[in-house]
Model the fold of this input.
Amino acid sequence: MEHSAVFWSIFAWLTFWGLVGGVVTPRIFLRKNLDVSRAGLAGVCIGAATGPLGLLPLWYFGSRLRTSWNVLSGLLIAAILAWGIAVAYPHNTCVTNGEFVASLFVNGLIMGIIYGFMALGLSLIFSILGVVSFAHGEFYMVGGMVVYFFTTTWFPGSHPALGLIAACTITFAIGAIFERVFLQPMYKGKVERPIEYGILVTFGLAFFIQYFVQAVAGANPVKARRFFDFPVVGIPTTADPWLIKTTAGGLTLFNAVSISNPRLTAAAIALLMLVILLLFLYHTWIGKALRAVSQDPQAAAVIGINPETMNTLAFALGGVLAGLSGATLVQAFSWVPQVGMLPTLRSFVIIVLGGLGSLPGAFLGGLIIGVIEAAGTGCVPDPTRAAAYIPAYGMMVLTLVLLVKPTGFFGRQQ
Done:
């Protein structure tokens, strides 16, 4: 770093006033009999972003906190840190090449959509069953494997949509059978320590699926063909496609932002399925029954809803969401039986970051992790280190968020 002292001075300033705001603001709000549930987070964000200029009015007037304040403060903090990095490392590609930064951001959002969709399944399972499934990544892996073998070995040349349907069917069946056989005893009082039992039995499922697939399919990497090719289009004209240019394998926006065909296709499918999931949960009787069981299983049983059936459905649907995420990404990445390990860790980070059991929080957490991973991968000068640090980026963000808001973005105090 050419001007490291400037960067570390900025970092120390942000840290100091963030800590002051996080510690002092809740105490002042408590003395004034104001709501302190969000005072710590607001104090950290406003303190780090504005220092005493923002904290003193906040402490004096003690007004009702608004979410927009935290959002604006977070954006200001990000801008200050970006400026500090630009001063300290002026020759970094992320500093000198705006087109590269825009491409990183858009591709981070694309992957964040897929991450969020994958984590929705884990959040759905936890909100209804109260179980953290350690086999979530293996459902992701199975979905990809099913699509690959369906389109290349079992039914060569078949349409990829049929492979997606097969992946959903198989992961749903695995989830439903496993829940009925191994998780139902927890609800019937046959297990003395249900929390530990849930962890161990889902761990066992993860190991079984992983090594069963390895024994059947082998350990060699596989990759499915592209689901379809984009048509060659240029907008506004083919001769000068400065707005949108598509080729068979990708799309380019403004002659700057490149998005690969497989990733864009996977994100589009994820968004479509997200809309279908929300319509299912909020506009169908079964979806409303699932939400009722997540809020109060006993009250749901009184009005005629069978909580055991809803538990089975929730675990199976969670497996489907993970499997469908893998099914759409097998065209983008090489697939091995161990491919689900990192998505499992990433899903845990996302649902805790967004708030355990919160579906909007899981999706927002996925977007944040996707953008941060893309920025970290592209802006760290050493590519080898950048790739090795990928699992750490999410953990750092998670740690910072939990320090100021232990329940995550949308979690609730129990």
In short: The chain has 17 helices and four strands. The CA atoms of residues 38 and 65 lie 7 Å apart. The chain has a mean pLDDT of 86.
